[in-house]
Amino acid sequence: MTLKEFLNNGDIFAKRNGIQITEIKPGMAKAQMTVTEEHMNAGRICQGGALFTLADLVFAALVNQRENMAFAINSTIYYHVAGKLGSTLTAEGHFTSTHPKVPAAQVVVTDQDGTHIATFTAQGYTKSMPNSFSGLE
Amino acid sequence: MTLKEFLNNGDIFAKRNGIQITEIKPGMAKAQMTVTEEHMNAGRICQGGALFTLADLVFAALVNQRENMAFAINSTIYYHVAGKLGSTLTAEGHFTSTHPKVPAAQVVVTDQDGTHIATFTAQGYTKSMPNSFSGLE
Amino acid sequence: MTLKEFLNNGDIFAKRNGIQITEIKPGMAKAQMTVTEEHMNAGRICQGGALFTLADLVFAALVNQRENMAFAINSTIYYHVAGKLGSTLTAEGHFTSTHPKVPAAQVVVTDQDGTHIATFTAQGYTKSMPNSFSGLE
Amino acid sequence: MTLKEFLNNGDIFAKRNGIQITEIKPGMAKAQMTVTEEHMNAGRICQGGALFTLADLVFAALVNQRENMAFAINSTIYYHVAGKLGSTLTAEGHFTSTHPKVPAAQVVVTDQDGTHIATFTAQGYTKSMPNSFSGLE
After folding, report:
1. Measuring CA to CA, which residue among A21, A90, A15 is closest to residue A60?
2. Do residues C22 and C31 touch, judged by C-beta distance below 8 A?
3. D119: nearest CA partner in chain C
4. Each residue of B69-125: pLDDT tens digit?
5. Which chains contact A through at least 3 pairs of Cβ atoms less than 8 Å apart?
6. Is B104's Cβ below 8 Å from some Cβ in C?
7. Cα separation, C77 vs D122, whole angstroms
8. In chain D, which stretches have pLDDT less than 50?
9. pLDDT confidence tier of residue A122, bands split at 50, 70 and 90
10. Quick one: which of B46, B55, B62, D39 could link to B83 by a disulfide (CB 3.0–4.6 Å)?
């Protein structure tokens, strides 16, 4: 099983909320979500938790490219522009630190017009448990 | 319509992910979520985005207690202990700043045993648009 | 040498900026700074970096109470009220997570009137290098 | 007086800690600090508060390029590699959001070899008070 398959099938919360990894390359990952009625908050814009989950899945695809399993220990999200109903949002992430135990990454969320929707930064913790994927994609 | 009704019915993303406001008092709000199969990430623990959404709904219940509509402009979450399948998680929030334009709050997520699962801090931005709820709960 | 002596003498940056640990108890630490001309920013309020350093020293006093040496890997600060010239600021910190490798803590900065000036949250990373203090204070 | 002069002379805390703005262009600012004995923490690396102040001054140079005065309301810093004694650190910042009231920016700190030392993100609040600089530099 590839890392992409593992995340797209195994992350049930992301999957049922319409979020899928679209690309994983060494040091880079992307995910996509189309904002539907199901992502609306009470103010009729995309719920922050939906944007957060989109970025978080990208983070998982970055920090698990390495030898051992890793997970987020903290994340910060800055909202710049509201995610609108019908938009297709792309999150693209890159490492800001490849520290062996506590890697860090940044994920930028944009819409189909390239508008910068949100910036997400996170730090992970790497366990001693090896990953065993057959590849990235 | 009360603020609680507005959020519990209007926040479709929170609602369809099993998250509901349970209490709103002046300066305090609580929400609850039972961790089910639908909240699992690929590592078989509660997805960070689900914890985030739980805390974010509480934040909305705090910053919208005031005269004008407000929304989060940034949030930080620290994960302390994994949210386990079957747990009932409660998020409780309080203001750390009641600044008229950029209020801040902290939300603590615990499980049914009182274990501290996550700490969420956020800052909001208050628009010039008045809220018109019939009450908090 | 106690942990308090180690930090108050060894943290040269904090020391030369008028910041000193005043109390360390198990799971709690406090530091103090009187806001002088030397802490002013161009807007004539206490520079954010001075508030940050005050809180950061408290964080060091918390995470180094344990068996092994630890240091901050990230921190978030929320500013609530400006720190005024002549104020005496106290930062008080407590653990939010006692995870053996990646502990977390929160530090609240208040002035002499109890006004909440800033909220600081941070996460540390614990090395395999043992601490060898003769005590906390 | 230019914005650069205003910050380099007026930010007394930054100045007395060896931090100076070196460049301000529309949408970009840089500051520099050489890590000396005066910036050491008790672990003999550059104090986090010194890195933070370096980045924070850049943030001030970004958000005050605009019509009205602005200041940081929150900041997050991720530490990637320790700042070493004798290093010359450069912080370079760019906007991530040019929102009129609550702009956001990111500042990256690197050393003279291009090593990525820290990532700083912050959000500002813009007052109704006009800035009146004669130019950026």
Report:
1. A21
2. yes
3. C74
4. 999 999 999 999 999 999 999 999 999 999 999 999 999 999 999 999 999 999 999
5. B, C, D
6. yes
7. 9
8. none
9. very high
10. B46
**Nearest 5 degrees, angle CA D49-CA D53-CA D54?**
120
- Cβ D107 vs Cβ D95: under 8 Å: no
Q: Enumerate the β-bridge partners of residue D30.
A: D23, D92
C130 has a chain D CB within 8 A of its CB: no
Residues 6+ apart with CB under 8 A from D28: D62, D92, D93, D94
Buried b / exposed e over B61-85, threshold 16 CB at 10 Å, is: bbbbbbeebbbbbbbbbbbbbbbee
Q: C61 vs chain B: nearest CA distance in angstroms?
A: 20
Radius of gyration of chain D (CA): 14
Give domain limits for chain B: 3-130
Q: How far is residue A64's CA from residue A127's CA, in Å, rounded to a whole number?
A: 11
State the smallest CA–CA distance between residue A15 and chain B in angstroms: 9
Residue D134, C-beta contacts closer than 8 angstroms, at least 6 positions apart: D1, D2
For residue A6, the one-letter residue type is F
D82 three-state secondary structure: coil
> What is the value of pTM for the model shown?
0.95
